[in-house]
Design a protein that fits this description.
The chain is built from four helices and four strands; from the N terminus they run αβαββαβα. A four-stranded mixed beta sheet has the order 1-2-3-4, with helices on both faces.
Length: about 140
Amino acid sequence: MRSLTPTEHEVQCAFIQLCRLHESRYPALALAYGIPNAGAGGSRGQAGKMKAEGARPGIPDWCLPVASGQHIGLYIEFKRDKQGKAATHQKSIHSRLRLAGHQVEVCWDAEQAWELVRRYLGIVQSSTPPLAGST
């Protein structure tokens, strides 16, 4: 039986839908991008190709390369549920990104990630309609 907890992929897809929904109002979102992680379920051949192309373990799942406040960019690591924690190698990369001036956060659902982006960009009010399947 399938768990009612959304997968990390489902959470990230719902978050991307929110970003795209608001991109016309907040053009900075057009610069955001997802970072593929071959290690999580990728085939051996695909993972090897991605590593050869520069993929690194521990890099967060999503990036907004826009300066805001004291930070030069925002990274988000998505986890499946509140029990999901960053692995040791992820924490090391997150620390290095923070030292370089980025804000790095772990999020467990699309709405939490959207609220983080909203605060990061200084968006005062959010009029986010609920998405089908996002809880």
